[in-house]
Amino acid sequence: MKQEEPLPAGGSCLLGSINLAEFATPHGFNFDDFRKTVHIATIGLNEVLDEGLPLHPLQEQRDSVRDWRQIGLGIFGLADLLIKMGVKYGSPEAIDLCDMIGHAMADEALKTSALLAKEYGPYPKYNPEAVEQSAYYSKNALGETKQLVKEYGLRNSQLLTIAPTGTLSTMLGVSGGIEPIFANYYTRKTESLKGHDEYYKVYTPIVKDYMEKNNLKDDSELPDYFVTAQTLDYKNRIYMQSIWQTHIDASISSTVNVPNNFTVEQVEGLYMTAWEAGLKGVTIFRDGCKRAGILTTSDSKKDDETSEKHKTTLSRGMIIKADDNCVGKKRTLQTGCGTLHCEAFFDPDTGELLETYLSKGSSGGCNQFMIGLSRMISLAARGGIDIYSIIDQLKSSGTCPSYAVRTATKHDTSKGSCCPVAIGNALIDMYKEMQDEISDDSEEIIDTPKQSKKKIVANATSSKCPQCGGNLVFEGGCNTCKDCGWSKCD
User: Fold this and answer.
1) What is the DSSP letter of 124?
2) Sheet containing 327-335: order of strands
């Protein structure tokens, strides 16, 4: 809502989300129960805001929360709702339904905030003229709500936002935010169960439930309203976000997934469409980026075989040179014979290991042995041996008596059973750190006319989940792990 002065950048906003899929009935969307839920959620967020207000560390933060009282109630599970109701995502029927749901949500949130203002007073920075003249308020507040706001004001300067819901949606097995389902199924690969690569489909919960209820054998038999992020026309995707933006007084976190062959001209068209539709921001993710990881819509191992052929390989006996622009990292290890310094240098583009330097920080142990070991590790790395194979050999070195004694007596040794094992653990730790840095650096922010908040993510390196080690999928404006539910935005 329009204010006389802007909301402070340091303000705090409490977030909460409602699962729309739970309001689908055989007779349509249950607006009565939905309004009751919005009412309860708005009150609940205000109560949590009051509880947490004195806990903010800075006085500036406490003042901001007190003066503006920002909350952010949102939704998720929209795609599941539409599938349950047999409505195609992005269709005129879907846009009309979202318009009605969003309007009901905004009106009920405004009404509840006005009733809270009646009991506790409006937020200190409340400006009645500015609020009543705002286009958002005029569009979303109905007659009764407008009367309550005119009489009592509003308890909150901000009420609605659609935040990333990666963890919530994965935990409940529904779609995130206002996005379509990412895919009807994922192709997973196992190497350990049968002694060879085995590929199998893992269906999205809403797809699996439908197929079981209707005795379908394959997802090709699904009706056409099972739309996925990869098959949806981007303009319909933009129009869906646009209709929600008219009912959301803050912002929307959402990702437009586009196919691998999406051109620069099409990207420009997408941004212009988003700008013309009134979006505050839009994020694009192109299929095929390395960050896609273990979750893929491929039906067979053909894609894996093709990608393997295009990998750069070294001829037997060929050793590449480590340039001066390597990125170095260092770990100081405590071994059975004293301090050991481990330095590793990585390729700045791929993050692959190129060289290592090992040196003893004390008189104990054999420094010449460490020099020889570091040279052999470096030679193997520059000869095309992947770091995991090198680490596997280092970890097969067994147990050193000196290491074991110091571990048992002083409990200060680095992780491992001997110097080579400790070095292997340090190298893999630095390697993963390097890969994370490359992943973070590979996000290109591209400003477009009149929309500085828009961005496109491209050429991303595969990113691992810090919680379970699985690969991440970029959706909902955030990296999310489909294996454990971890989300970078939570």
Assistant:
1) T
2) 327-335, 338-346, 353-360
Give the domain extent around 335.
327-437
- pLDDT tens, 161-194? 998 887 788 888 899 899 998 888 877 766 655 6
Q: Please give the sequence-ordered ranges of beta strands (E in DSSP) within 238-387, or none if there are none.
A: 255-258, 283-286, 327-335, 338-346, 353-360
pLDDT per position as a tens digit, 99-111: 999 999 999 999 9
Q: Are 35 and 18 in contact (CB under 8 A)?
A: no
Asked if residue 8 lies in contact with residue 64, where contact means CB atoms within 8 angstroms, the answer is: yes
Q: Are 2 and 133 in contact, with CB atoms under 8 Å apart?
A: yes
Count, residues in the chain: 490
* d(C-alpha 261, C-alpha 116), whole Å: 51
**448 three-class SS:** strand
Buried b (16+ CB within 10 A) or exposed e, 26-49: eeebeeeebbebbeebbeebbeeb
In a domain, 168, yes or no: no
Of 238, 228, 233, 208, whose CA–CA distance to 82 is shortest? 228
The tens digit of pLDDT for each residue in 381-436 reads 999 898 999 998 998 888 898 888 998 898 889 998 899 999 999 999 999 999 88
First to last CA, the chain: 26
398 domain-assigned:
yes
Contact (Cβ atoms closer than 8 angstroms) between residue 485 and residue 304: no
- Exposure on the CB side of residue 123, measured as CA atoms within 13 A: 25
Cα 487 off chain centre by: 5
DSSP single-letter state for residue 405 = H
Give the contacts of 253 (CB within 8 A, at least 6 positions apart).
162, 163, 164, 177, 283, 476, 477, 478, 489
- Number of compact structural domains in the chain: 1
Question: Which comes out higher in pLDDT, residue 363 or 225?
Answer: 225
CATH code assigned at 407: 3.30.390
Pick from 400, 237, 410, 426: nearest CA to 343: 426
Residues 479, 442 contacting (CB under 8 angstroms): no
